[in-house]
Amino acid sequence: MGPITDIDGGKAAEVAIGNTVEEPVVAAAGPQATRARGPWARAWGRFRQHRLAFGSLIFAALLVVVALAAPLIAPYGYGETDVANKLAGPGFDGHLLGTDLLGRDILSRLIYGLRTALTVAFGAELTALALALIIGLAAGYLGGRVESVLMAGTDVMYAFPSYLFAVVMVTVLGRSVFALVVAIGIASWVTQARLVRAQVMTLKQREYVEAARSMGAKGATIAVRYILPNAIGPILVTTSFAIPAAIAAEAGLALLGLGVQPPTPSWGAMISEGSRYLLAAPHMLVAPAVLFALTLLAFTWIGDGLRDAFDSSGEQR
């Protein structure tokens, strides 16, 4: 349920700051010279060359637009029923993907279910990222007793099964989008916090940090202004992998009956319901399962592209 853990601290630091050797200055036609591209521009160039990842980014952007414009795009309301056409097949009587056992339009429920999935996924990862940045920055930069206490708490959370923790949180908070965001977010910050701490411990020894100290910069200013921007690369990679994990977690909780309250649609609930009518109405399962799989693949491929983009050795491949 958490993001990837195979990023080594030292290597991730190099990924974060990109290639430290500046490209040679290219002479312009006039008296001025064109500066070499910075690490972010080089990373974007490498990402665009990753066709699968770039195509997935376009697909993910389209999903976000569809989710935001759901009331305008969906042909029916997600709770609107057509009692005369229950379990209708795809294309029947204006229902492009068919209807479910209550006569609700599956396409409309998929679109609104996409809104639920993305809201939970992005909200949970923002929550997890905020916790990871606060705890990782404090532990890595301050060190000493603060680091010991914070990392001891992190180890306790790491030992506790994250999915079980999410189940307990949803049970306590109730079945709502807010409860899912909080539950999944709090259950998935640990690995990112460890990564942030490793990045900070490596970067705080760099020359530019020492130079900032010599100019009078202190504490939080150094951590936020000088260290954090150079650690964004690996953090962005882990976050991109954590988003599909959060979508899968939301669907998994829905399969257990702990998703959002009906009639609000959820892909996990639609897949669970469709599996019970697989022989009588296979379209109820196929449509949400295919879209669910494509969405997870798209975000995973985006993560692969970002990982390669922030790897400075990618320029030499």
Which features does this protein show?
two-stranded antiparallel ribbon, disordered N terminus, OppC_N, 14 helices, mainly alpha, 66% helix, single chain, MetI-like fold, 317 residues, protein transport, transport, ABC-type dipeptide/oligopeptide/nickel transport system permease subunit, 2 strands, 1% strand
Question: What report would you give on this structure?
Answer:
With 317 residues, this protein is mainly alpha-helical. The protein has one domain (9-16, 39-316): MetI-like fold (Orthogonal Bundle). Helices cover 66% and strands 1% of the residues. It has 14 helices and 2 strands; from the N terminus they run H-E-E-H-H-H-H-H-H-H-H-H-H-H-H-H. The protein has a two-stranded antiparallel ribbon. Helix 1 (9-17) packs across helix 9 (190-203) and helix 13 packs antiparallel against helix 14 (283-309). The longest helix is centred in the middle third of the chain and has 37 residues, at 106-142. The protein is elongated and about 75 Å long.
Principal-axis shape: elongated
Major sheet: arrangement of strands: 1-2
Under CATH, the topology can be stated as MetI-like fold
User: What's the domain count?
Assistant: 1
Q: Indicate the CATH architecture.
A: Orthogonal Bundle
Largest sheet: 2 strands, antiparallel
Q: What is the chain-wise order of helices and strands? A: HEEHHHHHHHHHHHHH
Q: CATH homologous superfamily?
A: MetI-like
Protein name: ABC-type dipeptide/oligopeptide/nickel transport system permease subunit
Pfam family, one: OppC_N
GO biological process, one term: peptide transport
Family: Belongs to the binding-protein-dependent transport system permease family. OppBC subfamily.
